[in-house]
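Lab notes, practical 5.
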Amino acid sequence: MTTNDTLTAVSGLKVGHATDEAGLTGCTVVLCDGPSGSGAVGGVDQRGGAPGTRETDLLRPMHLVQRVHAVVLAGGSAFGLAAADGAVRYLAERKIGYKAGPVKVPIVPAAILFDLGLGSSQARPDAEMGYRACLAASTEPVAQGNVGAGTGCSAGKLLGAGRATKTGIGSAAVKLGGGLVVAALIAVNPFGDVVDAQGQVIAGTRPLRGDGFAGSLALLRGLTGRLALTVAGATVIGVVATNARLNKEQANKVAQMAHDGLARAIRPAHTMFDGDTIFALATGKVRASPTLVGAYAAEVVAEAIVAAARHAVAAGGLPAGADVLPLRR
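Output from the prediction step:
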């Protein structure tokens, strides 16, 4: 039996991808089935300087709605937010949503990343693509690499999109005592570099001349005060999930702590060119401390980011990390 070490290891969640291999873009949907379509408790933490999001305010404490029914991650920059309309339609057809008078309104937060510099800038996730991702959703281990929201992802934009390295979408999960599961699904498209647990760059900015990786932090030092504001758009977006029983405030805290994993695996992280956003979902079955869940959320986010780089393959004229430094695969 295959071990599931991806987001769908959390019971009550399904994941589906829709991929445009020609245009190099796509979207990924996380469906929160829950008992009778009740969804999952949701939270969010947004830290990058260039976000593109939908329905994030309602996830914050002191707001009425407590549970969400799906989360959409998409390429296409702001155009890609339209993919969430497809998820809303899918859920509405199944009468899943927040009961508001005579109707049920599906609650579908979303976040996008900028992938218009790779493939076709006219290829953008839309409502039909979001709907197809819902139809494809399952509890099987999540496909990783050049699929869904990871299709047009790359890392290392400092010297322009052409000197970046292909990345994708990655996932990781950890099983803890008492049946507790914490998992992450991350689409990795940062301005900075992806580094492994040893701090070695495995995907990122490639030098204008020579082989290997240039090192974005080293390049930034040389560009202090002279960095042009024409860098290609970036962003890391994703979901952390657990089968723990958390309230809305605790879910938001878990999302906040999860960003520590992003900062461990991306250098630099949370720049003005990134819209880094992490959603948190709690399906509510196992008693657990939010501190424990948050600590391991950071761990699985870092692992998922590395997995996104490891599973990626060359596309759009960009090599994957394994093509740049094969021995580090």
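Observations recorded by the TA: The chain has one domain: 7-328. DSSP finds six helices and 18 strands in the chain.
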